[in-house]
Backbone:
């Protein structure tokens, strides 16, 4: 207490209440200084560049030619460009809304949702979708890292005995049992920078090696499916494949929370500068891979364009190694908000003491859980495509627009009003259609499925 009893007379009730409030604020600050998202606010603008590149440019970029084959030239290019424009716009909205209330920063996606939708409803709308996306992506990256390690091993040592995918997933997971104990976003900035460079590198290898191969004989660009129903469902899957490639919004506010902010120099300036550079890198990765890959192989392209390339072996092996290095960083970017949610709940709701031991247990359990599920269900990408329809599309394409309409209330039929409603309608359509395509993918993959296969 700041005011002691004097001559046996207790301080007035107002002073006791003030002292209690000061103690509570000090305790809250101590907790915030320990939590991953709010513990460090000294990031530079270029941190947001490679954090956003690492979050957005996943290994799924190698599947863009396959998505193009399911959509065709016209719709494929249109969806590529529209997704780039729409998601850049909704990302700008997120950056602007981070500090729209003077003196208040919405450091987490669900905090912004609670402000827009209400305390309870905001949690119910945002948190389940964030968990589906972030935990799902971590599991998929476990599988992707293991598959790429396995492919690198097969190419680098062609005379070696084959090793099961499960062991490569465990090898990949071993890196996260170490890296996951880095405390916050700024502490993984080096990992994220390497991952961003790797994403640009393997994307460049993919499209340059494909272009060097030249357009294949008897290449065909028509739809491959035999029936109209199959063609339509494949179209839905391809639509989701391209749309989900742009889904990095789930960690945007958490990244911006690491940038310092003052009334004269708010964080949205450096954050937006980093986002623009990141989106230029995204375009340099996505468009050449998608267009060159489909142009060379047509509808015969495999779901991973690197697998369509047989030579040069060294380039394919190097690209797979770069994929591994990239998804190591991506896993950490998507895991950090999960760590923050779990640690916040344990410390603030269950009154656990912030400690290294608590962090050690929480993060090891999470890495072990995602590794176990990846080994148990190595086609989890099909499940992600289905559930992602309910999470990726809303959090990326139309939830920012809904929150913008609720908070800023633009004039009806104004340009802002129309822009947001168009994004909402397109996002809802995307959510429904991609979920249908994802469900079909699960059904097809599960035909030959056996547990721990």
Residues:
């Amino acid at each position: 207490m700041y005011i002691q009893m004097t001559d046996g007379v207790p301080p007035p009730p107002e002073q006791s209440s003030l002292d209690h409030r000061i103690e509570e604020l000090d305790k809250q600050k101590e907790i915030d200084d320990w939590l991953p998202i709010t513990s460090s606010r000294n990031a530079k603008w270029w941190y947001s560049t490679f954090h956003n590149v690492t979050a957005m440019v996943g290994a799924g970029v190698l599947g863009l030619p396959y998505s193009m084959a399911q959509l065709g030239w016209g719709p494929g290019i249109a969806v590529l460009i529209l997704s780039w424009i729409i998601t850049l716009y909704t990302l700008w909205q997120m950056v602007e809304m981070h500090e729209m209330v003077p003196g208040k920063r919405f450091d987490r996606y669900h905090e912004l949702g609670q402000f827009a939708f209400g305390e309870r409803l905001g949690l119910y709308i945002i948190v389940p979708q964030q968990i589906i996306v972030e935990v799902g992506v971590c599991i998929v990256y476990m599988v992707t890292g293991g598959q790429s390690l396995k492919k690198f091993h097969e190419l680098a040592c062609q005379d070696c005995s084959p090793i099961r995918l499960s062991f490569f997933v465990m090898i990949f997971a071993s890196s996260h049992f170490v890296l996951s104990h880095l405390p916050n976003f700024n502490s993984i900035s080096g990992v994220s920078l390497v991952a961003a460079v790797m994403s640009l590198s393997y994307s460049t290898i993919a499209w340059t090696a494909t272009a060097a191969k030249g357009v294949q004989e008897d290449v065909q660009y028509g739809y491959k499916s035999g029936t109209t129903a199959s063609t339509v469902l494949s179209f839905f899957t391809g639509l989701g494949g391209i749309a989900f490639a742009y889904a990095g919004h789930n960690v945007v506010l958490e990244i911006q929370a690491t940038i310092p902010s003052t009334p004269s120099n708010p964080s949205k300036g450096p954050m937006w500068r980093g986002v623009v550079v990141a989106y230029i890198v995204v375009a340099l990765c996505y468009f050449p891979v998608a267009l060159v890959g489909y142009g060379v192989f047509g509808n015969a392209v495999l779901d991973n364009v690197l697998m369509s390339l047989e030579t040069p072996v060294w380039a394919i092996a190097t690209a797979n190694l770069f994929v591994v290095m990239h998804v190591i960083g991506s896993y950490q970017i998507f895991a950090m908000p999960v760590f923050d949610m779990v640690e916040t709940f344990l410390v603030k709701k269950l009154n656990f003491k912030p400690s290294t031991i608590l962090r050690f247990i929480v993060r090891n359990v999470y890495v072990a859980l995602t590794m176990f599920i990846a080994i148990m269900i190595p086609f989890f990408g099909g499940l992600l495509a289905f559930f992602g329809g309910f999470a990726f599309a809303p959090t990326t394409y139309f939830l920012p627009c809904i929150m913008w309409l609720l908070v800023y209330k633009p004039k009806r039929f104004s340009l802002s009003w129309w822009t947001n409603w168009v994004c909402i309608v397109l996002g809802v359509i995307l959510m429904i259609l991609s979920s249908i395509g994802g469900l079909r993918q699960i059904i097809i993959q599960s035909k030959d499925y056996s547990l721990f296969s």
Q: What stands out?
A: The chain has 15 helices and no strands. The first helix runs from residue 13 to 32. The CA atoms of residues 116 and 297 lie 47 Å apart.
